[in-house]
Amino acid sequence: MIKTFCKTQVEVKVSEDGYLEDMSQWNEEIAHEIAKEIGIELTDKHFEVINYLREKTEAKEPLTIRKVGKSGIVSIKELYQLFPKGPLKYSSKIAGIPKPTSCI
Amino acid sequence: METQEANTKKVVVDKKPLEKVCIICAKGSLEDVYATLVMANGAVMEGIETNVFFTFFGLDGITKKQMNRLHTATTGNPAMRMPGGIPFPTMLGGLPGVETAVSGMMRKQMEELDMPPVDEFLEMITAGGGTIYACKLAIDMFKLEKKDLSDEVEDIITIGQFYELCDGDRTQIIFT
Hints:
The complex is a heterodimer of chains A (104) and B (176). Chain A has 104 residues and is mainly alpha-helical. Helices cover 43% and strands 8% of the residues of chain A. Chain A has helices at residues 28-38, 44-58, 65-69, 76-82, 89-95; strands at residues 2-5, 10-13. With 176 residues, chain B is α/β, with parallel strands linked by helices. Chain B is built from six helices and seven strands; from the N terminus they run βββαβαααβαβαβ. Chain B has helices spanning 30-45, 90-93, 98-112, 118-127, 136-141, 159-165, and strands spanning 2-6, 9-13, 20-25, 49-54, 131-135, 153-157, 171-175. The longest helix of chain B is centred in the N-terminal third of the chain and has 16 residues, at 30-45.
C-alpha cells in the first residue's frame, strides 16, 4: 500500500494497518501526521521514546514495554500516558518501525 | 468498517472490537499465573479495560510471600520434559528439590524472553490502567489479610461484585 503524507507530499510504503514498511523513509513530519491520525500531540518526550525505539530496531533488538520502562527515558506508567491505549503499538507506528511482535 | 461482497449485494460489516476483559485466575502454578498475567498485560497494551480476579490457589500469584517463588508441577505433568526433549520421569520429579530446581530454570528462561517476575508484572498491568482484585471467600479461607497481598491489589471483593464489574456487551470473561 502506498500512502501520501499531505504536508511532505512524500509517497511512503505502508502495511495494511498503517505501519511504515521502510523505516528509512521516516521523518519527523511523517511522525506528526501519523500521531495526529491516532489523536496524539507529539512533544519532545514522545520523540525521546520514538528515537529510542528506532535505535533499538536498527540494532535488531526485540522491543517490549518492559524494555522501554527500563531505558531510563520513561517509566511504563509514563509510556502509557504518552501513548494511551497502545504504548507499544502506537509508539511503533509513529516511529515508523514495523508492528511490534512482542506479547509483553 | 469493512465491506464484503456477498451475492452481488454489498454487505457492510461493523467490526465490534473487545472493550473489556475480566480474567479469573484460580490456580497457583507458575504457568497458570503467568497465563493470566500475559493475557491481562496484553489486553491493557491493546487499550482494553482489564479486571483480574485471583481466587483459591491463584491467590499465591498476588501474595507477597509466594508470588515470586511459584512452582511448576514436576509430577503429574505429562508435558514436562528434560532439556533436549527426553520425557521427565515422574519418579525423578518427586525427589526433594527437583521441583524447586526445575521451576528456577523455567523462571530463568522466562527472564531471557523479558518476562518480568510476578511482582513487576502486576505493576506493569496496573501502570497501564488494569485493576487487580482478590476473592473475599478465598482470602477468608486461607486466613489472609489485605496486608499479605501485593500493593497492586485494588481490593478484596465478592463474586457478586466481580460480576458487576463484568458489565457491557463487549465484555469477555476468561478463566485461565
